[in-house]
Structure to design on (936 residues):
């Protein structure tokens, strides 16, 4: 046998893995390429053009939906991250106390329930509140998004806290820092990367949501994903490709930042 | 006034610390009382789990005693949180703040005390000079070596001029050579600053070479407090004798006691004189300890005798393992000097001469 | 003055109180906008449907009855609701098939990543993470463009002369499954990778040393050791797959419904909120059962490994 025996090799695994990576990116590549198509077809290439990006940009519905998406995602992400940071501080680095397991379960609960069920539940619940209060604004969407963003924001913050050396805060206390000062000067600066990671995660999760938004939104409250879902159901033009491409780019940027931030150790 | 002899910086009075509740309760400290004098280099020595770190944490304020008082210059500090105690700690892991520079770390305590900027800067510069780290002031703590981190940790704890400095096994992470250097460095710092040091270690050599006084601890109790010489030459109990250095234990019966001296008869019938440990309660039987280097093996008759079982060469000295006539094991350590060496063979009959003052009677 | 021991006790009580205050915002938000409303769904499943959607506050088990059965309009007899049963069966079948398929593709992929050198491993991991965090709708849409009749696959096959008529893939169960495998593959790879990364390859060496073949090493050593990752990955894929909404809506068209589409229908044109609520509870029960299997499995593996 000419080839050396490799301990780690498994027959066919490399082939399957490479095929997976190829197939994972092929559809995305096709989608991006046709966003630059001159013709209005998404299968025949009619030359390079930016016309669909221009079309999307001048479509008032797209612009409105984008703003709405950003508004909801940033509000939900910020509120969720603050709540998650506080919750992470409350549930880490402690001896078990009564209610701790309950808190873990409760915070992670939105991850355990299928989105469709949460969507339906919120549809029913908010319908009652809408009648009772007469309020029809974006608050419902922000509240719903905040709730399902909390467990995602909680994840990296909690991980960071658990890896943090408790003796650092003890050292601060030993050096005359009151609990609040020790938190501000030692805990918080060391926790920042986790908080930023949590914020970005929450932002992306909120930005991507289709199902819960679809059920909670009132008329005229389309976010970019629900608008796109409507368009796709109606038939497709490269305009959706163009929107998707921009959306993809935004996600990739955020994920890249997140990836390097969560790898960074100090 | 600072040099008044016998003035106590720290007084620990009847302190108990239990962890857990009910059945699972464990006493980490079992009614400990000890006084630590001002300007003293005081060491808590004992194996891991003996309660030495617990005692240190109680003094620092990271834990509260279940019972008892801890007095700092006469006032009880046991109920105070750590940030209200004029006591600073050098942590085993150093616990340097990774997001601050060396200088920021050293200035942290003073900043928290609300000192003016100018005073902080001056004091930080002084501290950097004291630990010879002037050039690395702007570095991050992750960019300096272990020995340098150790110095920063020391400077940081000394900067607010604490009344007492607590050191929790600070040298354990360093390699042998650096550890030796830092031992001398620590003694120098203590001398220059005049601050009371309480040093925790499990390394008997470290304790013997550095300390003014040592407290030997085991199972949550302090067994003996004394100078290095007292602890080594006059161990009061079996644990202390066994934990520090090597020792021969011999059973004996007391013939007479006169002051601090006693005449005892060993199992072999030989009668020797021995020093009596404080607090010894005579009831006829006793254990006598003799350090291996306080005895001498000779060809011919000695105070006691036996057969050579093994001879082990150690470079600086040689250990002669002897089986005494009454069946007990005895080790003699002789220094290896050029020329004037008495060589022994396995199976040879030897006598053992005990020096004056070689034997000590244990309390237990 | 209080003793140190009393002060410690007070401090401990204060700390636990502070910890409750700190977690309160998160708990309240989740209670109001996620957990609490689930109870209302349970309540609604026992009410009577209103004529224009919503409900009438009258107790009824009709919602639950019509999950599995249908009432004949003329003689009021009950028979199995075959339309519902078809949808249940399709949902279960597709979710299970998607889970198995992601495992078949994901296992070698995770193994491949785990056996790369430290440096390149991060790059491969990053390539898996990107789709994981990009919009699910966009990824589904990307699949749609590839498998359409005018899409890349059919065009290529026709141009190569292999077929002359496009194969109808879109709006079939097959399309839904392909879509789910595509969008959920990262959910399988990541936990698998996490457990493979910890794999001690000296054990694999020991296996080869004791005359095992590659296949035997895979089956008898690697697979049992990474089983927690396999279980975690399968659960992570199965749960969103059984409740999938976007993928069947986009790739299944109107006819090939799954659970979620059926539920949506009851809140839309169907105007039968109690039935929709009962169906939601049913999906949740299936998910809870899957989670129970997971908890059992992980608890068991902890015992085995000491």
């Amino acid at each position: 046998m000419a080839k050396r025996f490799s301990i780690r090799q498994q027959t066919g695994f490399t082939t399957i893995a490479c095929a997976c990576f190829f197939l994972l990116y092929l559809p995305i590549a096709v989608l991006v390429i046709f966003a630059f198509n001159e013709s209005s077809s998404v299968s025949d290439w009619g030359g390079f053009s930016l016309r669909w990006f221009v079309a999307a940009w001048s479509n008032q519905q797209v612009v409105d939906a984008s703003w709405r998406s950003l508004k909801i995602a940033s509000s939900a992400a910020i509120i969720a991250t603050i709540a998650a940071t506080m919750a992470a501080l409350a549930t880490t680095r402690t001896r078990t106390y009564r209610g701790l397991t309950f808190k873990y379960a409760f915070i992670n609960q939105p991850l355990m329930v299928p989105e469709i069920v949460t969507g339906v539940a919120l549809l029913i619940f908010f319908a009652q509140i809408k009648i009772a209060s007469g309020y029809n604004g974006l608050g419902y969407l922000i509240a719903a998004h905040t709730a399902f963003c909390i467990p995602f924001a909680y994840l990296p913050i909690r991980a960071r806290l658990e890896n943090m050396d408790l003796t650092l805060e003890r050292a601060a206390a030993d050096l005359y820092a009151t609990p609040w000062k020790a938190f501000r000067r030692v805990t918080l600066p060391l926790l920042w990367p986790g908080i930023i990671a949590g914020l970005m995660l929450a932002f992306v999760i909120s930005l991507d949501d289709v199902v819960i938004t679809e059920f909670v939104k009132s008329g005229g409250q389309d976010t970019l994903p629900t608008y796109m879902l409507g368009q796709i159901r109606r038939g497709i033009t490269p305009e959706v490709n163009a929107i998707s491409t921009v959306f993809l780019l935004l996600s990739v940027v955020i994920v890249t930042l997140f990836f390097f931030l969560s790898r960074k150790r100090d | 006034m600072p040099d008044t002899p016998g003035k106590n910086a720290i007084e620990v009075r009847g302190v108990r610390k239990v962890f857990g509740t009910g059945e699972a309760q464990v006493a980490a400290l079992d009614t400990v009382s000890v006084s630590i004098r001002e300007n003293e280099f005081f060491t808590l020595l004992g194996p891991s789990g003996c309660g030495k770190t617990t005692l240190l944490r109680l003094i620092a304020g990271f834990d509260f005693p279940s019972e008892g008082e801890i007095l700092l210059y006469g006032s009880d500090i046991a109920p105070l949180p750590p940030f209200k105690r004029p006591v600073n700690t050098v942590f085993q892991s150093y616990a340097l703040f990774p997001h601050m520079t060396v200088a920021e770390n050293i200035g942290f305590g003073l900043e928290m005390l609300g000192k003016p900027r100018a005073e902080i800067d001056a004091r930080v510069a002084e501290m950097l000079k004291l630990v010879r780290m002037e050039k690395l002031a702007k570095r991050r703590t992750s960019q300096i070596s272990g020995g340098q981190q150790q110095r920063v940790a020391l400077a940081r704890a000394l900067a607010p001029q604490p009344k007492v400095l607590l050191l929790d096994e600070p040298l354990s992470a360093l390699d042998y050579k650096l550890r030796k250097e830092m031992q001398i460095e620590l003694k120098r710092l203590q001398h220059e600053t005049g601050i009371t040091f309480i040093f925790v270690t499990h390394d008997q050599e470290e304790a013997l070479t550095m300390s003014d006084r040592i407290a030997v601890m085991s199972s949550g109790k302090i067994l003996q407090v004394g100078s290095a010489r007292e602890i080594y030459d006059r161990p009061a109990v079996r644990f202390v004798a066994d934990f520090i250095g090597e020792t021969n234990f011999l059973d004996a019966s007391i013939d007479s006691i006169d002051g601090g001296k006693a005449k005892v008869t060993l199992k072999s019938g030989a009668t020797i004189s021995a020093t009596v440990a404080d607090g010894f309660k005579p009831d006829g039987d006793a254990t006598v300890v003799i350090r291996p280097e306080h005895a001498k093996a000779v060809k011919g008759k000695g105070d006691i005798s036996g057969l050579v079982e093994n001879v082990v060469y150690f470079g600086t000295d040689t250990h002669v393992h002897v089986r005494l006539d009454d069946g007990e094991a005895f080790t003699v350590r002789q220094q290896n000097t050029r020329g004037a060496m008495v060589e022994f063979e396995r199976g040879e009959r030897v006598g053992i001469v005990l020096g004056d003052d070689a034997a000590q009677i244990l309390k237990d | 003055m209080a003793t140190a021991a009393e002060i410690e006790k007070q401090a401990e009580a204060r700390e636990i109180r502070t910890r409750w205050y700190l977690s309160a915002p998160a708990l309240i938000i989740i209670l109001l906008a996620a957990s609490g409303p689930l109870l209302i769904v349970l309540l609604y499943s026992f009410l009577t449907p209103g004529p224009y959607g919503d409900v009438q506050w009258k107790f009824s088990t009709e919602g639950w009855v019509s999950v599995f059965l249908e009432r004949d309009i003329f003689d009021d007899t009950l028979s199995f609701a075959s339309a519902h049963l078809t949808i249940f069966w399709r949902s279960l079948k597709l979710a299970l098939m998607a889970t198995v398929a992601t495992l078949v593709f994901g296992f070698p992929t995770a193994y491949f990543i785990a056996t790369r050198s430290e440096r390149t491993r991060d790059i491969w991991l990053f390539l898996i993470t990107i789709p994981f965090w990009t919009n699910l709708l966009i990824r589904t849409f990307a699949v749609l463009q590839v498998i359409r009749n005018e899409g890349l696959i059919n065009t290529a096959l026709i141009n190569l002369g292999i077929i002359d008529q496009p194969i109808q893939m879109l709006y079939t169960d097959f399309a839904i499954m392909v879509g789910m495998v595509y969008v959920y593959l990262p959910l399988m790879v990541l936990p698998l990778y996490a457990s493979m990364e910890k794999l001690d390859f000296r054990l694999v060496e020991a296996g080869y040393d004791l005359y095992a073949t590659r296949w035997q090493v895979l089956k008898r050593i690697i697979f049992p050791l990474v089983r927690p990752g396999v279980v975690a990955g399968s659960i992570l894929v199965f749960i969103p797959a059984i409740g999938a909404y976007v993928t069947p809506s986009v790739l299944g068209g109107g006819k090939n419904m799954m659970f979620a589409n059926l539920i949506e229908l009851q809140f839309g044109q169907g105007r039968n909120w109690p039935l929709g609520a009962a169906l939601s509870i049913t999906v949740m029960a299936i998910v809870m059962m899957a989670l129970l299997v997971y908890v059992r499995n992980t608890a068991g593996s902890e015992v085995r490994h000491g």
